[in-house]
UniProtKB/TrEMBL annotation:
Domain of life: Eukaryota
InterPro entries membership: Cuticle_assoc_divergent, Kunitz_BPTI, Kunitz_BPTI_sf
PANTHER family on file: PROTEIN CBG15282-RELATED
A Pfam entry, by short name: Kunitz_BPTI
Name under which the protein is recorded: BPTI/Kunitz inhibitor domain-containing protein
GO molecular function: serine-type endopeptidase inhibitor activity
Amino acid sequence: MIGPPLTCPLPDGAGFRVLLKDEDNSAIYCDSEKKPCPKHYECIQTIGQFSSEWNGVCCPRKEVSCSPDDGVELDIDGWLPRWYYDGKKCREFMWNPNLAHSPNTYVTKEHCESYCID
């Protein structure tokens, strides 16, 4: 298998880092019909991994992904150009996916603007 088996759509390439986790740092599983996620999270169905009790993982909703207070770190050792929403507009920064922990990270300015502003 390439990449982590459980991941969120954002940030592209590091979504596994923003899964909602419990106090033991384990992913919180959900079922889109029987066991919903907590407020500000949505159940994203997994591919190839599920059980009779769950079919997805809890990922941040738009209000979290576009929050300027979500902890976007402007990495001094980042090397990939990415965009984040600062509460007013989308700004470019250099991203280090090894340190990524915020879903407020977009590959293009257009994606950032269409998701957070439009």
